[in-house]
Amino acid sequence: MLQNTTLQFISELTKNNEKVWFDANRATYQTAKSDVEQFAAKTIATFGKHDPEIAHLAAKDCLFRINRDIRFSANKTPYKTNLAFWMAQGGRKSVFGGYYVHFEPGKSFFGGGVYLPMSPELKKVRQEVAYCFDEFREIVEAPAFQTFFGGVVVEGHTLVKVPAGYEATHPAAQYLKLKSYFGSRQLTDAELTSTQLSDIILEGLILAAPLVKFLNRAIAD
Predict the structure, then answer these.
(1) SS3 readout for 145-156
(2) What pTM was estimated for this model as a whole?
(3) Cα 29 to Cα 6: distance, rounded to the nearest angstrom
(4) Given 3-state DSSP classes, what are the helix, strand and coil percentages for the chain, each rounded to the nearest 5?
(5) Separation CA 62–CA 37 (nearest Å)
(6) Who contacts 99 (Cβ-Cβ below 8 Å, separation ≥6)?
(7) Is 202 exposed, middle or buried (0-12, 13-18, 19+ CB in 10 A)?
(8) Tell me: the pLDDT tens digits for 39-63?
(9) Directed axis angle between helix 26-47 and helix 197-220, to 10°?
C-alpha cells in the first residue's frame, strides 16, 4: 500500500506545478519518492520469483524521474504529476517489453507488454504475432486475461489498415494493426492505500508475464 501523504503530494503538485513550490516541498517529494521506491522493491522481490528477468533489478533504477523533458513540448510545466516505475529485462531504458506501474490520483493504472515500441521492434513483434498467432491468441484471449485486462488494445494506438506485408484477411489482422501490445488495469484511489494493493498488482503481473515473454522472444530474435 501507499501512504496517504504520497497521494496528497501528487495532488498538490498537480495544483502547484512550478519550481518555487517544488523546491519548498522537496522534502515531502523525497518522502513520497521513497514510498514508491519501497513499493517497487517489494514488487520486484515478490514478482521476480515469477519472472527471473526482472528479479535482479534495483528499484531506484526502475523509477522515472519527476522532471519533464519540456524542450520540444508546448506544455512547459516542469514536473510530471505522477510517480511511476517500469520493470523490464535489461533495465528501464531497454527495448524489451516489461511491466509498468503508474500512481496518479484518479488516473492510476498498471500492466505489462510493449508500449509504442520503435519500428524495428514493432516489426519483430508483428511478425511473431502473425507466425505464432494461435499461441498469442491463447495468451491474450484467455478468460482470466480478458477479465483482468480486457485485452491488449491501447486506445489511439491502432492503424486503420493492416500494415504492409500482411493480407487484410490474415487471421491476426486485428492484432497486426496495433502499435502497442499492452494489457492494463485501472487502480482506484482506495486501492492505492489498501493493504490489497500488492496482491492486486501481483495478480495482474503474473497474468501479463506470458505476454511479456512472448513479445520479448520476438524482440530478442
Answers:
(1) HHHHHCCCCCCC
(2) 0.96
(3) 8
(4) 50, 15, 40
(5) 8
(6) 47, 51, 54, 86, 87, 88, 110, 111, 112, 205, 208, 212
(7) middle
(8) 999 999 999 999 999 999 999 999 9
(9) 70
Closest CA to 112 of 128, 88, 92: 88
The Cα–Cα gap between 32 and 192 comes to: 13
Find the length of the chain: 221
Give dist(CA 22, CA 17) in Å, integer: 7
Greatest alpha-carbon pair distance for the chain in Å reads 59
What CA–CA distance (Å, rounded) separates 106 from 192?
Answer: 10
Torsion angle of C-alpha atoms 56, 202, 43, 93, degrees rounded to 10: 60
In angstroms, the CA 79 to CA 69 distance is 9
What whole-number distance in Å separates Cα of residue 136 and Cα of residue 124? 14
Say how far apart CA 34 and CA 40 lie, in whole Å: 10
For the record, the C-alpha cell of 130 comes out as 502473425
> Sign of the C-alpha dihedral, residues 9, 14, 19, 21?
negative
pLDDT tens column, 121-172: 999 999 999 999 999 999 999 999 999 999 999 989 999 999 999 999 999 9
Query: What phi and psi values does residue 201 have, to the nearest 5 degrees?
Result: -70, -40
How far, in Å, CA of 181 to CA of 186, rounded?
A: 16
CB 51 within 8 A of CB 38: no
Phi-psi region of 113 (alpha: psi -120 to 50; beta: other; left: phi over 0): left
Give dist(CA 201, CA 93) in Å, integer: 22
Place of cell 509504442: 116
CB 54 within 8 A of CB 43: no
